[in-house]
Amino acid sequence: MTPRLKVCGTTSVQDAVLCAEAGADALGFIFAPISKRLVTPHVAREASLSVGVTVARVGVFLGQGLDEVLRLAEASRMSVVQLHGPLSPEFVETVAQFYPVLRVVKVNELQTEGERWAGDPRVTLMVDAPNPGGGVPLEWEALKAVWPAGTWLAGGLGPENIREAIHLLRPAGVDAVSRLEREPGVKNPQAVQAFVDAVKRS
Ligand SMILES: O=C(O)c1ccccc1N[C@@H]1O[C@H](COP(=O)(O)O)[C@@H](O)[C@H]1O
After folding, report:
1. How do the domains of the chain map onto residue ranges?
2. Mutate-to-test residue for ligand 1 from 30, 131, 177, 182, highest number of ligand atoms within 8 A of CB
3. ipTM exceeding 0.95?
């Protein structure tokens, strides 16, 4: 099955429309203050309301408290919340009472987190590289043996390598940012379209 496709790091209405028209299933909006792709709730909300009913809007959080996550997700009209970093199961559970959650894990957390959330449709796992937004791919071959069905893949994905990653792991969804940009926070339209086309053809 063709994986779902998320393009992350949206910082403008223009790039949101560009990615939606290119064929992205989901757009990511990064609210983690450390990010070079930080977006304001106002812009994220305008962008969210510009892409129609079929495109999911994913709020991305790292190192933020529960109140802040829920407040920003609500203010910017997100439809999904993506949680990075060390978090208690209770934290994830609370967010999952309000939004479907993409729970980002590192390779060494995959088994424990996979077991913890197995069978819970509110929480989907995504494996990312140690440095989110760093554009460095994981060792996909080594991941094959421990890859749970239904898991998403991120980390250094781009038009030039996405077909290999999908072929090896068959992820349920894929997510990319840095290899689809002209500069941090600004999309490269050709790279976005090439990424979408490669995923849809996989
Ligand atoms: O991109 C960021 O700046 C970022 C900051 C904080 C948390 C997550 C971030 N991005 C996430 O990184 C991966 C993929 O990145 P890349 O393709 O390797 O550059 C993706 O999950 C983004 O949502």
Report:
1. 4-201
2. 177
3. yes
